[in-house]
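The authors assume throughout that readers already know how a fold can be written as discrete tokens. For illustration, here is how one protein appears when written out as sequence plus structure tokens.
>
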Amino acid sequence: MSMPTVTCWMMKGKLIRVKGEMKAVEDANRWQTKSLRDLATINYGRSPSEILADDGVYPVVGTGGSERRGNDYLHDGESIILGRKGTIDRVYFATGRFWTIDTAYYLTDFTESVPRWLYYFLQTIDLRQMNEATGVPSLSRELLYKIEIPTPPKPEQTKIAEVFSTVDRAIEQTEALIAKQQRIKTGLMQDLLTRGIDEHGNLRSEQTHQFKDSPLGRIPVEWDVASLQSMASKDKHSIVDGPFGSNLKMIHYRDSGVPIIQSGFVTRGVFAASNYLYVDKSKFKSEIRSKAVPGDIVMAKIGARCGMSSILPDNHPISIIAGNCIKVTVSEENSNKYVLACL
């Protein structure tokens, strides 16, 4: 099996990113090409079955991070976790005392490398291309040891790692802010969709307004509970799913024509399409019940996005939904944005 290669550019010992890949730029006087064997020791993880405990002190880690807790540890200090079997395309950085599961490796003895720098470099390698198994993906220790890495002096490794660590912290802070705003939005939606606002723009409460019991809980007396069907268009196919099974499969796909809406295009309130598949006009006409037009609500029916919905944009062409979607056409008397918010 051929090993992946890393292209080195002679540009004063800098580490740059080109088209999503890390490129090492090697100064002949300062950088050296070393194997992973030169930079660290790869150790086998072990089954945690005997040390697992709900009140365990130490994390039990794999390439996805901490999975469980245990009452013993294999290593104390900084380390890099690589997959041995299964998920081999992830790299995880661990520190402190931890136990590594038996389907992963953990690296130690970084005599010629800074752990954080090596962690970031290993993230740039497509480890899936090194898979040696035909069944469950697997990586051998000897093959990993042969990876060649353009290596700067340790002080420069430290500086490079600090740059990437700063970027990681900025990303984490941004994600935390987004999560906080999402929680605020969720709480606001709960208030507005169950209590509403009065003619003065104030949020109703039972201290200032009259409420009544309903199948959905307490609601303002002016409100009624309506079914989704009652808010949909009177059209025969206002709420439908996509073609069933063999009615829309690979042999029907075309390079152009009427686009197919997949559940993967539906995120929480946002329609984000890419890599369309198409059907020709004759197939579209035979499955016309599953037509979707701009303004329709499209919901994921199955899969990881199940229940997520979004509105087909105004500039989107007439389409057909796939079998993993549901389409709702809201009546003109009702707001599709309001119905989407309720969903």
